[in-house]
Design brief:
The complex is a heterodimer. Chain A is 0% helix and 49% strand. Chain A has no helices and 11 strands. In chain A, strands 2, 4, 5, 6, 9, 10 and 11 form a 7-stranded mixed beta sheet that branches. Chain B contains no helices and 9 strands. Chain B has a 5-stranded mixed beta sheet, with no helix packed on it. A 4-stranded antiparallel beta sheet of chain B has the order 2-7-6-5, with no helix packed on it. In chain B, a hairpin with a 4-residue loop joins strand 5 (55-56) and strand 6 (61-64). Chain B is globular and about 40 Å long. Classes of the chains: A mainly beta, B mainly beta.
């Protein structure tokens, strides 16, 4: 019963490097989300996708791009990583608007 | 920015009920109230949600004030596994959940 799977679990980048965080869900959910959580803080919404082929900005989208590759997969790309992007990144999915979110286990990203 | 107000931390003795409060000073008539919790080193997990009426499920109960300006998450018998950060969230869009800093619950054996 996989649910929401995120890869990688840990990543260290140097300032200016790029990388893509991968997320996949096996629950046939329409909506998918990317959040970040800084130490001692709550989660902040980066981007979301209400359905395949659509994406929208959340609370803190600057410095990120997303791709909803298909219904299962929603990736988050950092084109030029900055130390301020050091955080734990969570992907989530839901069946539809107003339905409960299912979260992945997170990716811990450090940018040096 | 988070639209809800919660205490930063609370403590409870094991096997006693816990009442976690949340203030919703700016809530609108169409905003659902959601509660999630986050165990250490894990992603958040859904606890319960409601609109106007009190709600119960196997994990907890949600009591919503008549004016909807406050809600209370009730854990009927706290266990050590309930130690987590609890978030209350208002949502009217259905897809933009704003998490505040939540309440860190400590359960004392």
């Amino acid at each position: 019963n996989a649910g929401v799977t995120q890869t990688p679990k840990f990543q260290v980048l140097k300032t200016g490097q790029s990388m893509t965080l991968q997320c996949a869900q096996d629950m046939n959910h329409n909506s998918m989300y990317w959040y970040r959580q800084d130490p001692g803080m709550g989660l902040r919404l980066i981007y979301y996708s209400a359905s395949e082929g659509t994406t929208d900005k959340g609370e803190v989208p600057n410095g990120y791009n997303v791709s909803r590759l298909n219904k299962r997969e929603f990736s988050l790309r950092l084109e030029s990583a900055a130390p301020s992007q050091t955080s734990v990144y969570f992907c989530a999915s839901s069946g539809d608007s107003y339905e409960k979110l299912f979260f992945g286990s997170g990716t811990q990203l450090s940018v040096l | 920015d988070a639209k809800t107000t919660q205490p930063n931390s609370m403590e409870s003795n094991e096997e006693e009920p816990v009442h976690l409060p949340c203030n919703h000073s700016t809530i609108s008539g169409t905003d659902y109230i959601h509660w999630y919790r986050q165990l250490p080193s894990q992603g958040p997990e859904y606890v319960i949600h409601g609109l106007t009426s009190n709600v119960n499920n196997r994990m907890a109960s949600l009591a919503i004030a008549e004016d909807r300006k406050s809600s209370t998450l009730i854990l009927h018998r706290a266990t050590l596994r309930d130690a987590a950060v609890y978030y209350c969230i208002e949502d009217s869009t259905g897809n933009q959940f704003y998490f505040g800093t939540g309440t860190s619950l400590t359960v004392i054996p």
